[in-house]
Write a structure and sequence with these properties.
The chain is α/β, with parallel strands linked by helices. Helices cover 39% and strands 24% of the residues. It binds ligand C2E and calcium ion (2 copies).
Length: 399
Amino acid sequence: MPNALPREHLPAGHVICQAGAPGDSAYLIEAGSVEVLSQEGIRIAVLSAGEIFGEVALLDQLPRTATVLTLAPTTLMRIERAHVQELLKRTDPVIRHLLMLLLERFRNRSGHENIPGLNPEAALDSDAANLTLMLAQDLTHAMANGLLELAYQPLISLPERNLIGFEALIRWQHPLLGSVMPTKLINLAEKTGLIHPLGLWVLQRAMNDWPTLRSYCQPGMLSTPFISVNLSPAELGNPQIVESIARFLDEGGIPPHELQIELTESAVIEDLPSAKQVLQKLAATGVAIALDDFGTGYASFDYLNTLPISCLKIDQTFIQEVLVSPRRREIVQTSVNLARSLGLISIAEGIEDESTSDLLVELGCGIAQGYFYARPLSLQAIPKWLEEARILGRISRGD
Ligand code: C2E
Ligand code: CA
Ligand code: CA
């Protein structure tokens, strides 16, 4: 029913908007053509089907800067400011800020001195945008100048308490802001596209350090030693990621099963068909795949049957309350059982005390990770930690 669509059908010679008059919408030309005249009446452009005009009015409430009239019978679709403002609210502050900057420059060039209060949130946007732009610049610099670090958090096999491997976790000490939270850093890298070089840097560094790390490890009952590296959802979208991983392994002479890639359950669920494709390619290289933050992402476990994963990492929110909450304990027990029945290893993350560690042994969990054993450590700090952890009996003696 074409008549049900909100369209304006105009004859030739009709003035759609007048320079200096208020305006709160832009127009998309569906058929016909229009001419755009400057405030002095000089023709600036002729636009036809598929083109948009009046778009400046979508961003601010100042008068129109040009006159537009139809050259032929023309059909237009109106784009309302309110609708676009709603969309803008949901975009990144950097994009909003850049848009406003562009608009301000355009308005100034067209003879408007100042734009008063474009938008009450503009100042906030500009702070957030400037911070993001500054951090992105600093992160690029940090990557290029070797200022990022990896910390390694020990993974302990249960019940024998062998040091079975490490999870690599990124660390960035910003010269002005201090240590930047990894989640914030990853988020920034994802927004700015820096995630691809950053992810490759993490993989490369972890694999360079792995021979040293491996020399501290001992095999457990369920697994041989391995290094675990996080991959963000954005990195999964990089078509070269599997090849890069295979190349790093090859160059480092590292058997693929000694590398585990961690992906959050929610990232995998978000786009299951494409995650499945990449994971199958990845699994075919022999690399192990862990579902991180397991239990937080989804209500159905159907997908577990179809993905080539080898490990479930039970989210720390369940582990940290497992002693006091019978429901959490039930969830952890069910997750451990589920992993076992599917032939997967279970890792419990966030173990902060001995009683929790003992309970996890009782529940049959395969691998433990948490502050009770060790915080994420620099490569250099590991030998001293290992010595102390052995004296305290937290790790087996390794003989
Ligand atoms: P994650 O992968 O779930 O990593 C585990 C987080 O839990 C780490 O935080 C670790 O320090 C913390 N943790 C470990 N044991 C305990 C404990 O007993 N108690 C408590 N309260 N926390 C514990 P971190 O290092 O701040 O990393 C946060 C998140 O940032 C990671 O969560 C991961 O999603 C992301 N991340 C870190 N490094 C990388 C990286 O190299 N690449 C990607 N893509 N993401 C990374
Ligand atoms: Ca992880
Ligand atoms: Ca986790």
